[in-house]
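fyi for ur records
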Amino acid sequence: MRALGRVRKVPSGSRRLARTLAALAAFSKASKYVQYASDPPPCDRTHQRDISRSAAGVSPALRADDASLETGPRVAGMNDTNGGDDGNNASVARFYDQLAADYHLIYDDWDGSTERQGRALDTVIRAALGPEPATVLDCACGIGTQAVGLALRGHRVTGTDISPAAAGRAGREAARRGLEMPVRAADMRALPFGDGSFDVVVCADNSLPHLLTDADLLTALGEMRRVLRDRGLLLISTRPYDQIRASRPVSTAPQLHGSGAGRTVTFQLWDWSEDGERYGLEHFQLIPAGDEPGDDTGEDWRVEVRRTTYRALTERQLAALVTDAGFDGPAWRQPEDSGFFQPLLTTRRRAAP
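which gave:
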């Protein structure tokens, strides 16, 4: 997998790896870093545990092979690199294309997280709409963490993602579990579905804050409204930005995943704008790279660096945007209430007059 940033080798051997991890831990301890209690994934919600707490049980990586993946209409920003907001969205697609094969490595147990997150969202959906299975669009499905989880709970799920590699893997993960789950590569600002096609739209895991302007956010939210039936349910989750903006963390604590020759290390660096509303993120993974000639330890490591940008939307900001886009009664539910690992905004499509 080709990284978006430079690939560097780090000292091999157990002692030198220990020194590398100790240096990363010292950096995080000396800096303000963000830490969560449970369940996150890649760049937006890396599971922040102390590096001494490792776990096994990793799902096998699947190589991206998306030649047959159905794609939605081309939208400005999916492929353009003109340096504006469209350029940022093109970089988002590349970010997740590059991360798709290794996405599960961010979790202690991706299969377990898929089941937990699906169960939590299923509870919210059935409480709002009733006990019957719903038609669900996950418009930022990634490799399927929420989409597969909801399909396992009996919902009729369709997945889209701006990253063809991520959407393709989501389809394969669903098929591996015997699930019928259509997937498409599509920008959430131009969803390739008819009006009123779904009971529920999910946009989870801090995906919406990749859009950096009110115009793009309202366009995406308008598309989510359009494809929902009257009084359909929208679920959005983000990082807890009200608290994060107050402290402006500059890094995440390093996380050690796996054990033995298969262990990986993940951490992030955050670079905040002066107004505290946006931050650039550098996502680092230390990944075993195979044997190096002359290295009698049998270990070698490479660093994958991927970069993206987020807008740190407060709960009030996002609730106002959702209302402006044609939704009623936006309400935030915190993890201790919803069972989902991030703050969760629930709102209903305003009925047609």
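The two ends are 51 Å apart (CA to CA). thats all i got for now
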